[in-house]
Amino acid sequence: MAGAPVEALQRVPLFADLNKEDVEQIARLFKERRFSEGETVIQEGSGGSAFYVIDSGEAQVFVGGEESSTLKPGDFFGELALIDEGARMATIIASSELVCYGVTFWDFRPLVEANGVVGWKLLQAVVKMYRGAQQ
Hints:
alpha+beta
């Protein structure tokens, strides 16, 4: 199967308000990525350009060098990189063999630019996430 499972993306807050057809279109942009145990997936402070959804395996999240949490299948990370390519806010290290679906900013952006409805819904989702983080 090319792309990511639609059901996995529908659980991501950034995509939750999109209809199934829009999510299917986004899912086709994803590519499978595999990481070995101990491999750094993303590094805190580095430039961000990809978003990932975990299919299998686990990963540890470190913020400021301190272990923060564990990510498992169905979890996701890097969603803000799809919008601004800003610096990573955490380091993610595979704690087992890790299979993810990932999409880059440069693959995602043309879809959003060509589809105003998707772009607007994503903007609303980001604002909702921001408001939730402020409370």
